[in-house]
Design brief:
Helix content is about 30%, strand content about 35%. It is of the alpha+beta class. It has one domain. It has a five-stranded antiparallel beta sheet, with helices on one face. The termini are far apart.
């Protein structure tokens, strides 16, 4: 009986230790001034000047690195919601646009492969 209890405790502690080492993904709302220059330039090239409405988010992964924690951005997104209109543009940290939702394709000279069809989403 003692062996079973000790074995269970060791398994639980091992699981907790492994979970503590796993990277944590989080989304953080940021100001337009905090958006990297590569992402800003890509937005301005494809969609014009940065708008006043809407908001920016960064999706980042935080991992423990010895005594410190390292935060690595996975992507940046511009979001706008108004009057039933929903726009989401995702950019890689390098500035390359990775997806676009809710944008009229004919207005912009962006590759059709980045647009996500709402019918496919659900």
């Amino acid at each position: 009986m003692k062996k079973i209890v000790i074995t269970m405790m060791v398994c639980m502690l091992t699981g907790v230790a492994l979970f503590a080492q796993a990277p944590a993904k989080q989304s953080i709302r940021i100001t337009p001034e905090q958006v990297p220059m590569a992402v800003r330039q890509s937005y301005e090239k494809d969609f014009g000047t940065l708008p006043e409405d809407g908001y920016w988010m960064v999706y980042a992964e935080t991992t423990p690195d010895g005594k410190r924690t390292a935060t690595k951005p996975l992507w940046y997104s511009y979001n706008k919601r108004s009057k039933g209109e929903r726009i989401e543009l995702r950019f890689l940290p390098t500035g390359e646009i990775s997806s676009a939702k809710g944008i009229d394709r004919s207005k912009y000279q962006v590759s059709d492969s980045i647009f996500i069809d709402k019918k496919k989403i659900g």
